[in-house]
Amino acid sequence: MAVEPPPTTRAIEVHGVDTIPDADRTGRPRDVAGILVGSNLCLGVVIFGWLPASFGLGFWAGVTSMITGTLLGTALVAPLALVSLRTGTNLSTSSGGHFGVRGRLIGSVIGLLLSLGYAALTLWTGGAAVVGPLARLLGLPDGAASYVVVYALLAVLAVLVAVFGYRLLNRMGRWLAIGMTVLMLAGFAAYAGDFTTAPVVEGGYLLGAFWPTWLLSTVAAGLSGPIAFITLLGDYTRYVSPRRYPAHRVVAATAGGMIGGLLIPQLFGTFTAFATRAGEDYVGSLVQAAPVWFLVPLLLNGLFGTVGNAGILLYSMGLDLDAIVPRLSRVRATVLVSVIATVLVFCGYFVWDAQDAVTAFVLLITALGTPWAVITLIGFARCRGRYDADALQVYNRRSRGGIYWYTGGWSVPAVVAWTFGAVLGLLSVDTTVYHGPLLAFTGGIDVSFLLAAAGSGLAYFLLTRRSPQPVPGDDPRLAAPGRSSVATPS
Fold first, then answer.
1. Where is the chain membrane-spanning (predicted)?
2. pLDDT tens readout for residues 393-446
């Protein structure tokens, strides 16, 4: 009998949102950490370190807000890695155990929006980091035509990486973690001579007072980073086998990867924002203030960092769209979402104001994503991490039935609780383009994250306190329980 050759990074990934067989779950916890660190050391994440400076905060206030938000968000989000560790599929599909096999579409849409927005942001900032250095080094034109060509090139490279899938992303993550860290360390030296801790914008705090602005920075620059991973983590922990690795190692690797992958680039962004006095245009100021010797490293970051990060995000988007429209293959879904992301990039360059667009996006999507994450974690605790992997795939097979069918495929308590938390969050958001009406009752302070999390959690607890969570009676260590649910074709 012929022996199958081992998979390589040259092979296109065959899995979509189906359950990964244990034989294919060859990932390690350190692979998860490597992907999270390596793929995020790019200007698409660095730019979030600029936000505190653009809000009018001083250096130390900006740093404390980012660290506080990142650690708080990581504490909430990192345990989600355990869900896909147990189910062997991505997080939005796994959430069907709590939202219903049709209700899990909420997670797929949230994941699609999260990855779409961040992919567009990554391509946008990466394009500026490629065009700017080339203009200074070689005298190439830096007008709209150059940006259109570079954006298109970066998008094509990123979609190729995303199409090849998990193993190539894993290999790239390890190399990017080393290479991009070296480039950022060089960047600290490049800009150190001009560094100052004084605020870089005139006119005071963006929201008129220190604490409201500090809390805005905590959410927009700090908390939003971990929230961006709420559906993405499972794309990689589903390749780790619970038979070989204990849960605590997976959570520790996930938390470490998130903290390192977010704080390293964001602190670099804050440092360089103050060194270059970047109040309104971060990437442009970064390029213009760079010493000549740092232009090549900056160009490399703009190219490889962007392709790595955008590839991760497009890969996740492809899985989410595949989960929404099962007839689409993962490859076709990935190509389609890359086109949409590229269109958003052009809008970001030609139409929108950078600071307002980024801030509004991350705050609004955080208000939508946080309740979903809270309900998924509560559901995970209620079922003690035990799932019927076959029943989770009912919608993908366009079938009916199974223990997660609930009411027509929807868990009404979970959907109602998510809606309640999301509405609370949206009504209490404070941005320069939208002010929620509940700010009048919160002293003008944006506590949208807290209200969204507490509201959804309390509502879900009250609505389900007398309803048992479906739990298969199989070994909880197994990702694919032996007992399958009966499902009939729709």
1. 32-51, 57-85, 105-124, 144-168, 175-193, 213-234, 250-274, 294-319, 331-352, 358-381, 402-427, 439-463
2. 999 888 899 999 999 999 999 999 999 999 999 999 877 677 889 988 887 777
Neighbouring-strand partners of residue 399: 489
pLDDT in tens, 370-404: 999 999 999 999 999 999 999 999 998 888 999 99
Joined tokens for residue 476: 């909880």
CA distance 56 to 50: 10
Contact 328, 321 (CB under 8 A): yes
Beta strand residue intervals within 422-484, DSSP E: none
Cα separation, 484 vs 290, whole angstroms: 60
**Which of 76, 380, 422 lies closest to 254 in space, CA to CA?**
76
Scanning 277-350, the segments in alpha helix (DSSP H) are 282-289, 292-300, 306-324, 330-350
Contact 268, 9 (CB under 8 A): no
Rounded distance between C-alpha atoms, residue 42 and residue 305, angstroms? 5
d(CA 294, CA 386): 51
Number of CB atoms found within 10 A of residue 89's CB: 29
CATH of domain 36-352: 1.10.4160.10
Q: Please, are residues 317 and 193 in contact by the beta-carbon 8 Å criterion?
A: no
407 — phi, psi (to 5°)? -110, 95
Helix, strand, or coil here: 42? Answer: coil
Is residue 168 within a helix (H) or strand (E), and if so which, with residue range? helix 166-191
Whole-structure pTM value: 0.88
41 and 257 Cβ atoms separated by less than 8 Å: no
| Position 417, amino acid | A
Tens-digit pLDDT profile for residues 286-320: 999 999 999 999 999 999 999 999 999 899 988 88
Model confidence at 480, pLDDT cuts 50, 70, 90, reads very low
